[in-house]
Amino acid sequence: MALTYQYGQLRFWEMFPGLLVWGTFSLAMILSFVQPLWVIVFIIVFDLLWLFRVLYFNVFILIAWFRYRQTLRVDWQKKLDQTVCAYRVYHMIFLPTFQEEYPIIRATLQSLKENTYQNDRMVIVLCGEEADAQRFARVCAQAQGEFGEVFMGLYTTLHPKGLKGEIPGKGSNLNWAGHEMVRRLQADFPEISDRQVVVSAFDVDTIAHPQYFSYLTYLYCTSKDPERSSYQPVALFSNNIWTASAPVRIGAFGTTFWLFGELARPHRLWTFSSHSMPWKMLKDVGFWQKDIVSEDSRIFMQAFLHYHGDYRVTPLFLPVSMDAVTGRNYLESLKGLYAQMRRWAWGVEHLPYLIDGFRRDPAIPLRLKIKYVFNHIEGMYTWATAPLVMFVFGWLPLFIAKGQTNAIVQAAPFTLEQVMQYALIGVLVSAVVALTLLPRRPDRVGRHTWLVMALQWVLLPVTFIVFGSLPAIDAQTRLMLGKYLEFKVTKKERGT
User: Fold this and answer.
1) What proportions of the chain, in percent to the nearest 5, are helix, strand and coil?
2) Shortest CA distance to 202 belongs to which of 120, 267, 107, 80?
């Protein structure tokens, strides 16, 4: 079942997340003046629940972190060599590119070359855009000259511009490349079956851990029904983390910690950013949708619906590292970070797709439908509202009710202050774990930067609002108003 939900078909469900968010803010504002005591009680309960959630979430971060550290210590190629595998597994790595220069692409290809898995079972696909054809031809020639004989195959595809029914971006590029590679694989390697091929859709700046493909192959060979699962690694944004601005670093680590929490609870897990999946699944669902922005998470739901709920995500506790947002100056970096967070928050577009798919398929158990819809709504709602409720709206009714002798009003400031102090435990855990995830400090970066890396977490409340809540509100409001977001490439630039 290949669903082709398009924007505007279910306007109520496109509007619902935004209405929920703005309804909450409006009600909080009105009641702060009309019934401030009600709002104060609500804020206290909300903050206590949020404190519990922070502490609860940190437990899963630590669980995932320990799994991550244990996985790093294993020789996965050795374990794979000792495993009886039903498949002779080949890996096809898609690298969509637009305006990236060769040093970025070369670093990615070099990391693939140095992986412990056999290069002669790896097919690389550089996916270019016709709008960038001249530069793409130049970097492809450089790549062929240096890596053309390294891998089983180094292919290039050129996505035409202006095709009907597409949004220019990564999803439409991958859709074109996927259909192209069906023909080319069949022509060049007819002996390879679909079940033998595992696809990795990587951002072009992705540096895979040296054992990534050995571990991925091991999981594919040992998991139950491996063709009914995607494989999600730990996403780090640390290629240039030492030179990124402090808010960008906090945003990068915050994304990794969110993913840690999901990896420790795979029943909640969707795919995100660079990840891997079966080639057979991609062919079954018709490849990535070409008219959406959030193709990395949508592809999981395409498979989930196609297989009537019999599809999952398997945690892969090894890292793939990408670039943190950068720019020509500090302000440009912050603008880029906001745009990136808004693009990720645009995952709210999945809600009407879920609703549409679930209502069409009675074979999917009702409990799964409820779970996925609730988790998606709750996650997007919390993303948009929690920072503002805690740090802004929480103090408005206290200011208005100032001078009242009610015991709750008098005790509220102290209670909220205590809750915030306990919540600092979560900030401390984040700071310590973040330091363990840092790559080696480049020689050009001063040693004092270690101290900056620790102290930057005092900015968390500000970044929580400016680069957390506001981009989410922006995305949900755009969807509510029918002003649909277009894909914008995150600028990738590294110092020498």
Assistant:
1) 60, 10, 30
2) 107
The label of the residue with tokens 């940190």 reads 58
The closest of 245, 238, 204 to 99, measured between CA atoms, is 204
Burial of residue 42, with CB atoms counted within 10 A of its CB: 0-12 exposed, 13-18 middle, 19 or more buried:
middle
Amino acid sitting at position 89: V
Q: Show the tokens assigned to 319.
A: 């890292």
Structure-block tokens of residue 439: 């790559």
Asked if 29 contacts 389 with a C-beta cutoff of 8 angstroms, the reply is no
Mean pLDDT of 94-119: 96
180-185 LR contacts (CB < 8 Å, sep 24+)? 181/92, 181/123, 181/125, 181/155, 181/157, 182/283, 184/155, 185/92, 185/123
- pLDDT reading at 38 higher than 70: yes
Cα separation, 39 vs 33, whole angstroms:
9
Q: Could you give the percent of the chain with pLDDT greater than 90?
A: 65
Contact indicator for 220, 300 with CB cutoff of 8 Å:
no
| C-alpha to C-alpha distance for 105 and 392, rounded to whole angstroms | 43
Whether 208 and 202 have beta carbons less than 8 Å apart is answered as yes
Phi first, then psi, for residue 240 (nearest 5°) are -125, 25
Which residue type occupies 90?
Answer: Y
CA 405 from chain centre, in angstroms, equals 48
Cβ proximity of 491 and 325 under 8 Å: yes
DSSP class of residue 151 equals S
More confident residue, 444 or 193: 193
pLDDT digits (tens, 9 = 90+) for 59-79: 999 999 999 999 999 999 999
Note the residue count of the chain: 496
Nearest CA to 214 among 70, 316, 315?
316
Helix (H) or strand (E) holding 319: strand 312-321
Give, in order, the Cα–Cα distances in Å from 445 to each of 14, 379, 440, 494.
46, 37, 10, 13
Q: Flag whether pLDDT at 232 surpasses 60.
A: yes
Strand order in the sheet with 197-201: 153-159, 122-129, 90-96, 197-201, 275-278, 229-236, 312-321, 207-208
What is the rounded radius of gyration, in angstroms, for the C-alpha atoms of the chain? 23
